[in-house]
Amino acid sequence: MVVNTVHWFRKGLRLHDNPSLRESIQGADTVRCVYILDPWFAGSSNVGINRWRFLLQCLEDLDASLRKLNSRLFVIRGQPADVFPRLFKEWNINRLSFEYDSEPFGKERDAAIKKLASEAEVEVIVRISHTLYDLEKIIELNGGQPPLTYKRFQTLISRMDPLETPVEPITPEVMGKCTTPLSDDHDEKFGVPTLEELGFDTEGLPSAVWPGGETEALTRLERHLERKAWVANFERPRMNANSLLASPTGLSPYLRFGCLSCHLFYFKLTDLYKKVKKNSSPPLSLYGQLLWREFFYTTATNNPRFDKMEGNQICVQIPWDKNPEALAKWAEGRTGFPWIDAIMTQLRQEGWIHHLARHAVACFLTRGDLWISWEEGMKVFEEYLLDADYSVNAGNWMWLSASAFFHQYTRIFCPVRFGRRTDPEGQYLRKYLPVLKNFPSKYIYEPWTAPQHVQEEAECVIGRDYPLPMVDHREASERNLVLMKRVHSEQENTAQLTRDVADDPMEIRMKRAYPKHVEETGRADGFLETTGCAKHFHHEGELKSLPCKWPSKVIQVPELSGEVM
Q1: What is the rounded distance in angstroms from the CA atom of residue 481 to the CA atom of residue 475?
Q2: Which of 40, 201, 212, 493 could tie 58 with a disulfide, CB 3.0–4.6 Å?
Q3: 198-228 as b/e, with b when 16 or more CB fall inside 10 Å?
Q4: The pLDDT of residue 526
Q5: Rounded to whole angstroms, how far apart are CA atoms 11 and 414?
Q6: Lowest mean pLDDT among 130-139, 383-392, 524-533
Q7: What is the pTM of this model?
Q8: Residue 62: enclosing H or E segment and its boundaries?
């Protein structure tokens, strides 16, 4: 019997370590690789132009790689449920393959496609490759319930079988006699569309800081592993102003879109560690960022309300304010706090921000200052952040808003001091907020405290050329702290569900990033506060200096970004 197969790309946009595609090709006479693009989705979804550009670049790179195998990518417009019945008939398909999708929406969609395939007598091949583990096996090992703390998750995976090594990439030898039927008008019918064809205005669009595609991902992986300082100690470079900028070794968008296999990354790390450490067994902490990603995938897979507060059983129900005007100022970088505004500007322009920057703006929006729901912040990240996905994005926002997983809600990021310690001269602020570029370093983090003549010399008068702070940070954080304490007290049972006493990588990260501060103080804190900030603004115009109050222990937050994530 002639076997005609279709491989359906969604995530997993790569030819290396693609077990479902590889198995689909075996014994097949023809193969067509498809990506289904919903035109309506392109025009109406909450996805910004940088994310769409990254996706299209991924598809272009995938098509180029398939050309080397005498094949092509078929980009098809429409809804999967409408497209596949037609393809099954037109192409006489009897085999369909795709990567397993653990997210609730994806599982529902895939179940419907499996049903259509069964009705058409089409064999379906599904393999796990977007996550390291079979998440359902983790849940089964936990008595049928997802682990709700990272410590419990670590315990469970330590009991599981060793991970399988990545499968070999698709090569001409793997393709064998399997061919791809192509027509002369392939580009016209099935080519990768441009941003303009999807309705985006690209006039003035700067070049991509993060080029999409498997080729770029594999190049970055090698760079990542080659960094001498990191390889020597298996730790990242010290935190400084450059750490806040996009790194040529950053991998998070490539893991999110599946241009880079998490399995390949895992085993490359393992091999390198054994080589450097002379075959000693690597600790779980080596894979920290991959495992945090895996943890959130596991907690989300059977929770269709994971990205919502209401109806989400693990999420503390908090009476957040609804303030569209304040939300817009935060999202557009108009809060009047340069550290916050520079971060949000970088996010909109480039599609990425350092994980510590994510913590700062998330805290400011939610429990720190504005008391606006984490769901609103999550939606903004979903629009702009290249590496945002359902599980990690929602999990991170619940964590940082102290709605789940993290409950030390008295720890609040100072919107002034953390940025100043990271970048004392304000180089990062000058790059993303050029309106402040002429301010002396002394005032750049709190420009409203600069004397009038300094503002005029800097050609930036606060309140005219750059906004005044939108809130009194001390008053807002103190008010929010009272509200948060009340909510957590009333909902102690919910909070306990995800309360973890495990050691968190964040304190280790802060110690590594700021060794001098730790050596001088004996502490890894100094960037967080309970209720105060060095100087704050009263809207009546009064300027006061107040001491920051620092906790005895650093805030604990998961490493979901940075150099890798």
Answers
A1: 10
A2: 212
A3: bebeeeeeeeebbbbbbbbbbebbeebeeee
A4: 42
A5: 37
A6: 524-533
A7: 0.89
A8: helix 49-67
State the residue for tokens 């049928």. Answer: 144
Compute φ and ψ for 35, nearest 5 degrees.
-130, 125
For the segment 407-449, what is each residue's pLDDT rounded down to a tens digit? 889 999 999 998 999 999 999 999 999 999 999 999 999 999 9
- Which residues fall within 8 angstroms of residue 171, CB to CB, at 6 or more apart? 69
- Beta carbons within 10 angstroms of residue 279's beta carbon: 8
C-alpha angle 476-521-360 in degrees, rounded to nearest 5: 35
What are the residues whose beta carbons fall under 8 Å from the beta carbon of 27, sequence distance 6 or more? 3
Q: Cα–Cα–Cα angle for 10, 12, 18, nearest 5°?
A: 125
Residues 6+ apart with CB under 8 A from 263: 17, 129, 132, 163, 164, 165, 166
List CB contacts of 485: < 8 A, sequence separation 6 or more: 409
Distance CA(527)–CA(555), nearest Å, equals 9
Within 8 A by CB and 6+ apart from 229, the residues are: 237
When pLDDT is cut at 50, 70 and 90, the band that residue 521 belongs to is: very low
What stretch of H or E contains 375? helix 374-384
CA distance 397 to 244: 20
Do 3 and 24 form a contact (C-beta atoms < 8 A)?
no
Contact 46, 382 (CB under 8 A): yes
Token look-up 């603004």 returns: 537
373-386 pLDDT tens trace: 999 999 999 999 99
Please give the residue that has the higher pLDDT: either 38 or 301: 301
Residue 116 has pLDDT above 90, yes or no: yes
pLDDT at 485 over 60: yes
Q: How far apart are CA 356 and CA 413, in angstroms?
A: 10
Phi, psi angle pair for 368, to nearest 5°: -80, -50
Least confident of 121-125, 286-290, 341-345: 286-290
Query: Smallest Cα–Cα separation from 17: which of 95, 175, 130?
Result: 130
Question: Could you tell me where the DSSP H helices lie in 277-316?
Answer: 288-300
Rounded Cα distance between 505 and 563, Å, is: 14
Angle at 154 between CA 152 and CA 160, to 5 degrees: 110
